[in-house]
Predict the 3D structure of the following.
Amino acid sequence: MNSKAIFLAHVDSFSAKPFAGNPAGVCILPAVQPTEWMQAVAREMNLSETAFLLRGKAGWQLRWFTPTVEVDLCGHATLASAHILWEVGRLESASAARFFTRSGELTAWKREKWIELDFPADVERPSSPNGDLEKALGGRPVHRVDGKFDHLVEFGSEAEVRALAPDMAGLARLPGRGVIATARAELGSEFDFVSRFFAPAVGISEDPVTGSAHCLLAPYWGKRLGKTTMVGFQCSSRGGMVRVRVAGARTILGGQAVTVAVGEIVSDVAAAPRL
């Protein structure tokens, strides 16, 4: 690689095989870059999120961008970031990955073939009826709550969640980041619950696997199922499994990741002014 170039990787998170789970870009910065430049790179990558890492004294500064906006919390791109730091030798495999973000300090550990993320739990808040949300989402929900970022809508069956075909323009007009549709998994399934996540307001029609949504899903289903440890499946077209553990004010997310491509942003492009 060109020593002056900026490292860039494409990682599929919450999957043990390529071309499944949720793809993320991971960019390791040699120095501070303008926000406008990072947004331009994320738009060029055109993935649900691209993570930008900058080494600090106590860990790594981490920021996440969709193709259109910077976001406050992202699970799959954090998982991808930790995976890359260990894979390319920026961190020893026995060392924790510590990230400093808009959502505070986040930590990742390598657990054999799995990675665990320590994220803040999201507390459900009562939600008043919203005809616009239900009309845009479709189906017949049985319960609804709000989280810090998203609306959560529970349906009566897994089949209903899988069959949803939302009006994305209608969802984009709603306040908040996105909408989580969820239901208990079918009887006999290896999973406890299923979900889908729609966030057209931040440039993502349907996110394949959303780690941060499980910060609300885990305590929501934990209370209803009487469990602290569960397995969720996000039933998008790519699909992905998320292990969750409720730990008081924190949610522990577990997933796997695989590197699909590694490259670089050439130095003249990296230095060019953006926007």
